[in-house]
Each structure stands twice: as C-alpha cells, then as structure tokens.
Amino acid sequence: MVDTVRAVLPDLPVSAIVADLQRTGSVDVTIDNALRDGGLPVPPPPPSPPPQQTKQTYSDLMTRYKIQQQDSATASGDEPPKIWEQTPEKRQEMLRKRKEFMVLQARKYVLYQMIYCTILCYHVHHMLSFS
Is 17 exposed, middle or buried (0-12, 13-18, 19+ CB in 10 A)? Predict the structure, then answer.
C-alpha cells in the first residue's frame, strides 16, 4: 500500500504515508488527502523510551534497608506499636521501625528454619548410618 502511494507521490515522507494509511485504511483516500492538502502531515516522532534506570541489587534485606541488627531499636523483639502518628515525619519513622521489625522477624524465621533443617539432616544421616 505504501509503495502504491509512493509510486504516485514519491516526494511524500514514508512516515506520513504510513500514518495516513493507518488512519484511513485506503490508498485512494490517502492519495486524495495528499492532493487536496498539498501533502500529508508528518506524524510526531514516537516518544523516546524512558531512561533506563539501573536497579541496584542488594545481597539481603538488611543491606537494602540499611538495618544494623546490633543498633536496632527493634532487635529486642518488641513489635513497634500500630498507631497513627500526628506528623508525617513521625509516621515515616514509625513505618521505618515497622519495616525494620518485619525484616528482622523474617531473618530470625529463616535462621531458625536453617538450623532446624541442619539438625534434621544431621539426625537422619546418623540414623541411616546405624542401619
């Protein structure tokens, strides 16, 4: 279709022909539009892709959220209260403490699971070796 329009009107930009053909779906209508208007409007350039942001990768959540287990206020295991603070700054701090608490709880859970699996594997190995 583009070649047909270019055969009749070779000076038209291909992008303008393609845009008009997509809009009209007809070679005849596109040629009529170009002859009537003295050309076809050139479509705007496609939007540029957003700049690629490189995601910073972290080895663990402790690093990602900059949590120091020794210095943590929630290291004692006490869950921060679930209250609505008066100022945005206090709410942000409460959110940080709750996030820190959840990360530490998840870390503790995974460590217990690893210890449990290690002990279980040890016992199974010894039970099989006595058989």
Answer: buried
- The tens digit of pLDDT for each residue in 94-117 reads 998 898 898 888 888 998 999 988
Q: How far is CA 91 from CA 69, 95, 110, 115, 124, in A?
A: 22, 6, 29, 36, 49
Neighbours of 66 (CB within 10 A): 9
Helix axes 27-37, 14-24, angle to 10 degrees: 120
Question: pTM for this structure?
Answer: 0.45
CA distance 91 to 96: 9
Determine which helix (DSSP H) or strand (DSSP E) holds 42, and give its type and residue range: none
